[in-house]
Specification:
- Its EC number is 2.1.3.3.
- This is Ornithine carbamoyltransferase.
- Carbamoyl phosphate binds at residues 53-56, 80, 104, 131-134, 270-271, 298.
- It is an enzyme of class 2 (transferase).
- With 321 residues, the chain is an alpha/beta fold.
- It is 40% helix and 13% strand.
- The chain is built from twelve helices and nine strands.
- A five-stranded parallel beta sheet has the order 7-6-5-8-9. A four-stranded parallel beta sheet has the order 2-1-3-4, with helices on both faces.
- α4 (108-117) links the parallel β3 and β4 (122-124).
- α1 packs across α5 and α6 runs parallel beside α7.
- The longest helix has 24 residues, at 291-314.
- The chain is globular, with a radius of gyration of 19 Å.
- 50% of the residues are buried.
- Bound molecules: phosphoric acid mono(formamide)ester (CP) and norvaline (NVA).
- Norvaline binds next to α6.
Length: 321
């Protein structure tokens, strides 16, 4: 196998089989935290934040260290990127020192620009458009609770709330890649971009999945195996708080809405959660919720992803399984 530089910028950067391979690796890491150590050396991975984070920061910092590497965590306020240094120049510098670049930022064009100039793998740790690492962790959580990675294809997942945000987009693309039936519901004005829906439908046609976008939360949740929601006000949208507190009330995930899903349906939320807004305490703190497994799985899924990306770059098959 010859080396191949790969990035994870959006959920459809990997194929159905590759997603399965990464999730199987995630299962192994969840059973044995020190299953693989591709960064023995230690070699550094740069982890950059232009937005706040608790889970992504801790899971990448701890994850890179457990992989035998050194996590170089840089915040916007402490970097020249935050003072306007071009992304391309930052990429050219970091790529000469680090073995991977992980970045949480605003526009998707920024991570794409980073990847264009990097000669090491670049990972999207959340942009305004996508959050692919989160959804790998979410699917790992379903696999753990519902019969393994092979059982993901054919499952029905429902995302309800701000259907125009990064989580909604990532569920559409990653769910289609997995061969799932993806149902997304939000109010008019907060539905996904038609280009992302078209991409998801094209992928679903190949994997046996399907895509439904609706304004009816009950239609989305009907018979679902897993129900997801997210904040109604994403990072960067804080000035819209008053406007955004109105249109979503019919999309709150509460006991009534959960009753339309399968009786044993799982509930997941990427966190941070706002109880009494997008989800009631009775659901997120109730028996169907697996949000703490989901949060822990950020660690296992991202270690799997980094190991897989490094395996691809080195052409080292032993790192892919
Ligand atoms: N879910 C998630 O990405 O959490 P953080 O914003 O805390 O990283
Ligand atoms: N949609 C949320 C996800 C947080 C993990 C945001 O972008 O703020």
């Amino acid at each position: 196998m010859t080396g191949q530089l790969r990035h994870m910028l959006r959920d459809d950067d990997i194929s159905h089989d590759e997603q399965k391979q990464i999730l199987e690796l995630g299962m192994k890491f969840s059973e044995n935290r020190f299953y693989r150590q591709p960064f023995a050396g230690p070699q550094a991975v740069a982890v950059l934040f232009d937005k706040p984070s608790t889970r992504t920061r801790s899971s990448f910092s701890i994850g890179v260290a457990e992989l035998g590497g050194y996590p170089l965590v840089i915040d916007k306020s402490g970097s020249q990127l935050g003072r306007g240094e071009p992304v391309a120049d930052t990429a050219r510098v970091l790529t000469r020192m680090a073995y991977g670049i992980v970045w949480r930022t605003f526009g998707q064009d920024r991570v794409e620009e980073m990847a264009k100039y990097a000669t090491c793998p670049v990972v999207n740790a959340l942009t305004d458009e996508f959050h692919p690492c989160q959804v790998l962790a979410d699917f790992l959580t379903i696999a753990q609770h519902r019969g393994g990675v092979d059982a993901l294809a054919g499952k029905t997942i429902a995302y309800v709330g701000d259907a125009a945000n990064n989580m909604s987009n990532s569920y559409l693309l990653a769910g289609a890649t997995a061969g799932m039936h993806v149902r997304v519901a939000g109010p008019l004005g907060y539905l996904p971009d038609s280009r992302i829906v078209a991409d998801a439908k094209r992928i679903a046609e190949q994997t046996g999945g399907s895509i439904l976008v609706t304004t009816d939360p009950k239609e989305a949740v009907a018979d679902a195996d897993c129900v997801f929601t997210d904040t109604w006000v994403s990072m960067g949208e804080e000035s819209e708080y008053a406007i955004r507190s109105k249109p979503f009330w019919d999309y709150q995930v509460n006991d009534k809405l959960m009753s339309y899903a399968k009786p044993d349906a799982l509930f997941q939320h990427c966190l941070p959660a706002y109880r009494g807004k997008e989800v009631t305490a009775s659901v997120i703190d109730g028996p169907q919720s697996v949000v703490w497994d989901e949060a822990e799985n950020r660690l296992h899924a991202q270690k799997a992803l980094l190991t897989w990306l490094i395996g691809k770059q080195r052409g080292d098959e032993t790192l892919l399984a």
